[in-house]
Automatic annotation (TrEMBL):
It comes from Mucilaginibacter mali. Its EC number is 2.7.13.3. Keywords: ATP-binding, DNA-binding, Kinase, Nucleotide-binding, Phosphoprotein, Signal, Transcription, Transcription regulation, Transferase, Two-component regulatory system. Residues 1143-1258 form the Response regulatory domain. SMART domains: HATPase_c, HisKA, HTH_ARAC, REC. This is histidine kinase. One of its GO terms (molecular function) is DNA-binding transcription factor activity.
Length: 1403
């Protein structure tokens, strides 16, 4: 059976009479329509806001708009934002006379008069921001301070000052003071009479309220008419303490006393009395009256001990306002001491210990109901989650943790319904998430973890629906929204299980989620439902937390998804959906602001915080009667005009709760009132009654700081008077300043926006938002105008220029008029001096002219001599260069035979002499090269020619060539290296000459019995840093003096001491050495001690270095991949021997050099000769050579012309050409190669290099013929042993072939096999092949591997092991280094199906 509860109507009928009377009073208050809202809402200013005390005795607004509040502890000035408190200081005579302020008056001149208790009277000097005490007047010979209990200024501008015993009348124009003593009138009534109030009526009569009755003063006759209380006369004054006097619109006078309100009746002898009566809510709230003020609407506002009464002078009824703890914006204290009607309709109330209360008709102040758990008729929980309107003025309110409440809008009271859940036996109230009142007046309640409730408000019964997995219950107990559609179906949003649709007639549920079920549409959302709305077409819009928005079309039962991807939704977390009266669809998101849907494009546009929204989290959206969209967020409430998209934000100044609002908690009632629930209660308001603020506040300047120090007005200060009234600011040059300002807005100053500019400095207004200080630095001297303006709460700016003040920046001393006058004098004096000097110069001009002519002649002569000397130097250098070029051919003729003799000569004696010849020839070549390099250094043409090689082996070989010199001079030569080899890219020629130069110097300056050492070491830091080779060449010679050491690398530097002169050279060797080292990126340093020797240290970064690998241990040395030099009589890889020698044509004009070439090559090739290019062309046509070797410099036709002719003739263009020249310039090499030549050699050169180049070109030509002619020639095997060297090489090759697959093959085994030491074999192979033994072994293995790759069916790994390589990867790396392709690529390009294909021959 459904549970029953008492209906809210029955609850009201049981209220007691006292409560009924209070309700009637509240209904009467609700009938008041003044000040924009149905209720009078007060905001308070207390010490928490900056006031000096909470008891406010008097309030006044001055002509500038500032509010002054006299309190029990000081005078406070309020500009709408900040309080300035003025306190009495015993040490400062210009401070407030006493702290308790009891009266205030601003006279017609703008002077503010202040009356204090115990401190007397003073007025405020606003220009200097000080108080001036008024000590009395000479006419009455008083020197004691005058106490001012009351102030007034009459129509004649006279000041009336009420004090103890009488009052003063001050005539400011005549500076006359009249004192009136009233003690004789009241001697029998009180001990000391006190003036409490003044009032001038329309007839200009002065009424004076005292503590001894009412006085009517006739100034002409200086007589009084006294009105006092008489116990036996009911028409007399009801009380003798008259504190307030006012006159209504009809001219009737009212007097507030300590015993009620009195009205002077016609005839002015009797009074009508209005007193408080218990049980009569229309009577005044209290008889003890402190103040009476006539409002602009004709009513009297009466401040009493028990509250505020608004007295209607027509009906004589009062609306009474007292503090109400159930109201957020009620009076803060019942005792109202003062009332002031300020500009713009704002009413200020001064209370006892409650601060100042402000009633502002301009403020859009929202009503707020907070949680009051201890109030039986209050809101039991602060978190309000849902609303539902039952009837007009009757609202159901759902809370989280407080259950269901019934709110009576008229009384402001709550009733609580105690609904129990079957799922929760703890007795706690329901955590309500959603409310929906359907067409049958059933209230549907969605809860968290307690399912769905159907509540009947009329009967108080309810039914609970809990998830049980059947179609008669919801799919989940966490329900976030409940909505009845136009068909009467109830839509229920769950937290993860999609949406349930309840048919109230059948009591069955249908669930839509993202799981596919046969016969039911799949909802394309994640199931965490947050919002729902039905549009005018009957389509249901569903919002989810994180997966966007889905629209359900009942006509076809299908869903359509809208999200960030397909429709530009700003955020997939949808919290609220609204369809306005124009048919627009608005979607509120989580952090993405508001989205407006455009059906034509099926896209959304956005309004976010960047567009002016208070916050991007939109919890609820509602539309008011005017079509304005209202939203609740994490930071207040915002309104949006759908047409203009203008946004207004409302926050704490508008009464909006500080805490965030709650998801879905919002509603529009039938009367147009809006409700929004949050974490601190709920706000409600009627948008149509909110005031529209069109006034723009004026701006007041409040402070000036110079160099971050507050400026006090003074004669020599930047300000002559207080800045709010000052017209000018005077600053020195270079002073930085800041001006503070504030808008006099007492409605919502936090919403003011500011803009300022400095005319003469700023080009446009600086819009600074809410910043209230302008900063300026580095202002040039001159006159400026500072202007500032503000916008109001609604963003409306003034059309006027705003508040302005002149700023004068004084120039520095050097920019003053006196300084400029001095500058004029100095300039004039300078001109006179210049004129004098000019005349003097004219006198000396003729005398100096001849000297100038002579000087020019001398300079011209010196220039010509310098040009001649330079030209002579260049001719010398050119001559030496040409001579050096001519030297290179004879040197080549010396070196080549010497190398050949060393290769064939076994006689040690003869070999020693030949080596001497070769060493001196190489030395001569080195000197020639130094001359050429010196010219290149002069012309900055030195470049590196990097080639691969064993850098350490190369240096060892270069150093070992000095062994015979060391033997002859009896100097010990030692060569050591920490690494056996290092393959790298380096310039062989330049490295060799570096070693030669340093060793030559070492032997030159080391005596007999000395020692020369060559040491090499390798440093390797990490993978990011290259290998570095350190070379040290040390001797024990004569050394170098310390003062000479820094200059030894300079060009042409030669030491002058005897031992040096004896052995000195050209002076350019070390200079060239340093240049070569630096070209390699290295550096060279020297250490020397005279008499002990010299050490040169070279640090050389190595390019492309290769060091020994771990998997090469079996080879005992690192193998390097370099091109094999020519091994003339050896067999080819296929083992075939040429049955016909290739024909080579030699074209050389030097007959001796041509003979040497022929003699060197005729063992390998058939040689044809020609003595110039012309004869060479004829021999090329007639002799059909297979390759041509030609010199470049020849008569009739040079080598380049010959190469071009050969390559352009179709009869000879297939013939390879090698050019020889004595010039090493790269430009000459480029010209030769561009002519079509296949290769290029610079004299001198090694014969083996030429032979290898010839062989490689012939092999390459043969491979081309094989590829294109597809011809196979089989040659018989022919082995010719022409020398012991060839026989040795044949033996080595045969042994390597026999041990081909042996990975342990080593140099030691090979040397034992041929019967030589390892050192002898190393030098022999290096001499014959330019390869070390291990390099030669690897070369043969790679050649055999290439044959196997081309002709066999083995794979790469098999061939690697067959040819004796440790691992396939190591084999692949070496093979690619040799042939520039991987083994697999080589197989693809060369392996043929025809297994019988044989090697071709040379043609």
């Amino acid at each position: 059976m459904p549970d029953k509860l008492m209906s809210p109507r029955k609850r009201v009928s049981l209220m007691p009479k006292w409560l009924f009377g209070r309700v009637c009073l509240l209904l009467l208050l609700a009938a008041q329509a003044s000040f924009g809202q149905q209720e009078l809402n007060f905001t308070a200013l207390t010490t928490k806001n900056g006031m000096s005390a909470n008891t406010v005795n008097v309030i006044l607004q001055d002509h500038k708009g500032l509010i002054w509040l006299g309190t029990s502890d000081g005078l406070n000035k309020f500009d709408g934002t900040n309080f300035t408190a003025y306190i009495h200081n015993e040490q400062d005579s210009t401070s407030l006379p006493a702290n308790e302020v009891v009266s205030l008056l601003e006279d017609n001149t703008g002077k503010l008069w202040v009356g204090t208790s115990g401190g007397g009277l003073a007025y405020y000097d606003q220009q200097h921001d000080v108080f001036v005490s008024y000590k009395g007047d000479k006419s009455i010979r008083k020197t004691q301070p005058v106490t001012a209990r009351a102030f007034y200024q009459d129509h004649e501008k006279n000041l009336w000052i009420g004090s103890y015993g009488g009052f003063r009348i001050i005539d400011p124009s005549l500076k006359k003071v009249d004192y009136v003593d009233i003690t004789r009138l009241v001697t029998n009534t009180v001990n000391t009479p006190v003036i409490l109030s003044f009032f001038e009526d329309r007839l200009h009569r002065m009424w004076i309220g005292t503590n001894a009755g009412l006085l009517l003063y006739d100034r002409g006759s200086n007589s009084f008419t006294r009105f006092a209380h008489a116990d036996n006369d009911a028409t007399s004054l009801s009380g003798d303490e008259v504190r307030g006097i006012a006159q209504d619109a009809g001219g009737r006078l009212f007097f507030g006393t300590n015993k009620g309100l009195n009205m002077l009746r016609p005839g002015e002898k009797t009074f009508g009395v209005f007193k408080h009566a218990d049980g009569e809510p229309a009577s005044i709230v209290s008889n003890l009256i402190y103040t009476v003020v006539a409002a602009p609407n004709g009513k009297l506002w009466i401040g009493t001990e028990e509250g505020l009464s608004i007295f209607d002078c027509t009906t004589f009824n009062s609306v009474n306002i007292k503090p109400d703890r159930r109201k957020s914006y009620s009076l803060t204290n019942k005792c109202v001491r003062s009332i002031y009607f300020a500009k713009k309709g704002i009413v200020w109330l001064g209370t006892y210990q409650g601060g100042a209360n402000k009633l502002d008709p301009n403020l859009a102040l929202f009503n707020l109901k907070r949680g009051t758990p201890f109030d039986p008729h209050g809101l039991s929980s602060s978190v309000v989650t849902a609303f539902a309107e039952y009837k007009k003025g009757e609202i159901f309110v759902g809370t989280d943790g407080g259950g269901l409440h019934f709110f009576d809008r008229y009384t402001g009271l709550f009733n609580h319904y105690d609904i129990k859940s079957k799922a929760d036996h703890s007795g706690n109230s329901l955590p309500i998430m959603a409310l929906e009142l359907d067409a049958q007046k059933t209230l549907w309640i969605g809860t968290y973890q307690n399912g769905l409730f159907a509540f009947n408000p009329a009967s108080g019964t309810y039914k609970q629906y809990l998830a049980d997995g059947t179609s008669h219950e919801p799919s989940q107990n966490d329900i976030f929204f409940v909505k009845q559609d136009s068909k009467g179906l109830i839509w229920i949003g769950t937290n993860g299980r999609g949406v349930d649709v309840l048919d109230p007639r059948t009591q069955t549920f249908v669930n839509y989620n993202n799981r596919a079920v046969k016969g039911k549409a799949v909802m394309p959302l994640n199931g965490f439902m947050r919002a729902i709305a039905e549009d005018r077409n009957g389509d249901i819009w569903l919002g989810s937390a994180g997966s966007g928005l889905a629209v359900y079309h009942p006509g076809n039962g299908q869903f359509r998804l809208y999200d960030r991807v397909n429709s530009q939704l700003s955020n997939d977390g949808v919290l609220s959906i609204l369809h306005d009266h124009l048919g627009n669809t608005w979607v509120g998101t989580n952090s993405g602001g508001i989205n407006l849907f455009h059906p034509d494009r099926q896209k959304f546009t956005h309004l976010t915080e960047a567009d002016g929204l208070a916050n991007g989290v939109v919890y609820k959206m509602v539309e008011d009667a005017a079509g304005t969209i209202w939203i609740s967020t994490d930071k207040g409430i915002s309104s949006i005009d759908p047409k203009t998209k203008k946004i207004k934000n409302f926050g704490r100044p508008n009464g909006v709760q500080d805490s965030p609002f709650v998801l879905g908690a919002g509603m529009v009632t039938s009367s147009g009132e809006l409700f929004f629930g949050g974490q601190d209660g709920f706000n409600y308001f009627t948008p149509s009654t909110l005031p529209v603020h069109s006034d723009v506040p004026t701006v007041l300047l409040t402070d000036l700081k110079v160099a971050n120090n507050k400026v006090v007005p003074g004669a020599n200060a930047p300000l002559r008077e207080q800045i709010s009234s000052a017209k000018d600011i005077y600053l020195d040059y270079g002073q930085n300043f800041a001006i503070s300002y504030v808008a006099l807005n007492y409605t919502a100053p936090q919403q003011n926006q500011y803009a300022y500019k400095l005319i003469g400095f700023d080009h446009d207004w600086n819009k600074v938002g809410r910043e209230k200080t302008a900063y300026y630095t580095n202002i040039d001297p001159g006159d400026y105008v500072f202007q500032v303006q503000a916008s109001n709460n609604d963003g409306l700016w003034s059309t006027r220029q705003g508040t302005a003040i002149n700023i004068h920046v004084r120039p520095p001393l050097w920019r003053t008029p006196y300084a400029y006058f001095l500058y004029v004098l100095i300039i004039a004096g300078g001109f006179l001096y210049i004129r004098h000097r000019g005349i003097q110069k004219i006198k000396n001009k003729l005398a100096l002219e001849q000297e100038k002519i002579n000087a020019r002649k001398l300079i011209e002569q010196q220039r010509r001599e310098a040009e001649y000397i330079h030209e002579l130097d260049m001719q010398k250098i050119k001559f030496l260069t040409n001579l050096s070029h001519e030297f290179r051919t004879p040197i080549s003729l010396m070196l080549a035979p010497a190398d050949k003799l060393l290769a064939t000569q076994k006689d040690p004696a003869v070999s020693s002499q030949v080596k001497m010849i070769r060493r001196n020839a190489r030395r001569l070549l080195n000197l020639v090269n130094q001359l050429l390099d010196f010219r290149k250094m002069e012309e900055q043409e030195l470049k590196l020619n990097l080639t691969q090689g064993d850098l350490i082996g190369f240096i060892k070989e270069a150093a070992e060539s000095f062994h015979d010199l060391s033997d002859r001079k009896k100097i010990a030569l030692s060569i050591a290296s920490t690494a056996p080899y290092m393959f790298a890219q380096f310039d062989h020629d330049k490295v060799e000459r570096v070693i030669f130069n340093l060793l030559s110097n070492a032997f030159k300056f080391t005596g007999e019995g000395g020692q020369v050492q060559v040491k090499m070491s390798v440093s390797h830091h990490d993978a990011l840093h290259p290998l570095t080779l350190y070379i040290t060449i040390a001797d024990t010679g004569i050394g170098i003096d310390p003062e000479m050491r820094p200059r030894i690398f300079d060009r042409f530097f030669m030491e002058s001491k005897a031992s040096s002169i004896l052995n000195q050279g050209s002076g350019i060797g070390l200079s060239i050495t340093r240049e070569f080292v630096q070209l390699h990126g290295g550096e060279i340093t020297v250490e020397s001690e005279p008499g002990k020797g010299t050490t040169f240290n070279i640090k050389l970064p190595v390019i492309g270095a290769t060091m020994p690998f771990a998997d090469e241990i079996t080879d005992r040395e690192e193998l390097r991949d370099t091109v094999q030099a020519g091994d003339a009589p050896l067999q080819t890889e296929a083992g075939a021997v040429m049955n016909k020698l290739p024909v080579v044509l030699l074209v050389e004009d030097n007959e001796e050099f041509r003979y040497h070439l022929k003699d060197s090559l005729q063992s390998y090739y058939q040689i044809l000769e020609a003595k110039d290019g012309k004869e060479g062309w004829q021999k090329a046509l007639s002799g059909h050579p297979q390759l041509i070797v030609s010199d470049i410099g020849m008569p009739y036709m040079n080598g380049i012309e010959l190469s071009q002719k050969i390559k352009t003739d179709k009869r000879t263009n297939h013939i390879p050409v090698i050019l020889l020249t004595a010039s090493s310039a790269e430009e000459d090499q480029l010209k030769g190669l561009e002519s079509g030549a296949n290769d290029y050699l610079t004299k001198p050169f090694k014969f083996d290099i030429l032979n290898t180049k010839i062989k490689n070109l012939l092999v390459y030509n043969r491979s081309l013929k094989d590829a294109y002619s597809r011809q196979i020639q089989v040659t018989g095997k022919e082995i010719e042993i022409e020398s012991t060297d060839a026989k040795l090489l044949n033996t080595i090759v045969q042994y390597i072939d026999a041990k081909l697959n042996d990975p342990e093959l080593s140099v030691e085994e090979l040397s034992r096999h041929v019967g030589m030491s390892r050192g002898s074999l190393y030098h022999k192979l290096l001499e014959l092949t330019e390869l070390t033994p291990i390099e030669y072994i690897r070369s043969v293995k790679l050649e055999r591997a290439a044959v196997l790759l081309e002709k066999s069916d083995y794979n790469v790994a098999q061939i690697a092991y067959m040819t004796g390589f440790g691992t396939p990867s190591y084999f692949s790396r070496l093979f690619k280094s040799r042939y520039n392709v991987l083994p697999s690529e080589y197989i693809t390009a060369n392996r043929k199906d025809n297994r019988s294909r044989l090697e071709g021959q040379y043609y």
